[in-house]
Structures are given as C-alpha cells and as structure tokens.
Write a structure and sequence with these properties.
There is one protein chain. This protein has 13 helices and no strands. By secondary structure, the protein is mostly helical. It has one domain. The chain is elongated and about 65 Å long. It starts with a helix and ends with a helix.
Length: 268
Amino acid sequence: MKLPHLTLISLMLLGSSAHALDLGSLKDKLGTLAQPAAPAAAQPAAATPVAASTPAATNASALASFSNKDQVGSLKQALTQGAETAVASLAKKDGFLGNDKVKIPLPESLQKADGLLRKFGMGSYADELQTSMNRAAEAAVPEAKTLLVGAVKKMTVEDAKGILTGGNDSATQYFRKNTEAALAGKFKPIVNKSMQKVKLAEKYDQFAGKGAQLGLVDEKDAKLDDYITRKAMDGLFLMMAEQEKAIRANPLQATGSLAKKIFSAIKF
C-alpha cells in the first residue's frame, strides 16, 4: 500500500513521526548533518601588478576605425546568435538535467535530509522530484528567446560600446539587467503548471513555508516554483556567458563577416 504524501514527506524529512511534521526535531537532526567548516587562515594579499593599459582602453582604441553603426550592427548579430544558441541548448529534454553546469539540484534544505530519505528506501522520491524540477525549467526556457532578442533590438550605441569594451561577460550582464524581471514573470507560470503534476512539490511547499518561519529553511527557497524559476534563469545566463566568452575568444565563430572583423579587432 502506498503511503499518503504527507506521511511520505514526514518520513523523508524527519525519519520519525509518520503523521506530523516535527520541525524542532528536524532542526536537531539536520544540525548533525551539516557541521560548519573551520575558517581558512587569512592569506596576505598579493601585490597587484600595474598594467600598462586596460582591456577597455585597448578595445576602445581598436574600435576607433569602425563606425558606430558597424559596431552596433556587429554586436547585435553576435548577441542574437549567442542568445538563440543558449536557449536552444536548454530548451530540450535533458537540456538542464543532462548538463552538470546548469542541472538544478534539490534545495539545500532538502539536500540535508536526503540521507534520511534514502535510509528509509525512499531515494526514488527525491530523484523524481529533482527530475521534475529540471523538466519544468526545460519547458519554461523557450519563453526567453523573444525577450532576449527584444533586448538586443533596443540596444543603444552607448550600450554597444560598453559591451564591446567590457569584460568577457559584459553582454550577459546587459541581458540580466534588462530581461531578468520579465523572464521571471514568463518562467514562473510555466514552472508552476509543470510542478502541479508532482504531489511531492506541494508537500514540500507546505513543509518549507513552516520551516522558513523557524529559520530552518531559507526564505528564498520556501516556494519550490520560485526556486526553480531562479535556478532556470541562472542556468540560462550561465550558458549565454559561455557563448559570449567563446565568440570573444574565437571571433570566427561569430555570425556575419562584420561581427567576425570587429570581434577579431578587440580579441583579448
């Protein structure tokens, strides 16, 4: 006979009462599972060498021979390419689950109780929850494409110059600043709909909401759909940063001859 979901969560997280959530007991149990690490000995700060010139200054000089129109046009080509590639890599089965760089783990509070769960032979429930979380992210991420491409279209000359003369993740930071709030609004309803199919997620929310009141669960992890939405966006921006870094390091990967020429001129 299958155990009721509330009983399952009680066993999973407490390993004791099969009928109620004893958060005080859980807090004691979790305390033994995560001992704080000893602080590392302070190391003397290394002297910072004085650079002859900054990358920004070098890049600005290299860009001087290109018109503003060409700079903006080439950057838009490259960023549209990077955004579309990042979305495509994640918006498929195992896009998140099969990629260790972006795979969404169980919330930290639940990871601490995972050992108890497996002692009772219920590890499959934790595995099922993690799989469902990553599938929800894979379902949501296609919504990002329109917003990212829209951010590229609205880019100003000043934005473009800042990105071209900036660091390896300047474009990714631009995207995060201009699309993160809107992405959360697009992702969350899809994540929520996907997670409604997983009864265990509902029980987790009940537990975590009470746990957050006692300081047992981090407030930002108290709702599973919020946690998944945040992790999905982190994964997306990570993949976009990798695309940006690759194009800067190897300009020939850029789409369009002008983008290749300009990124070659500012290659670090």
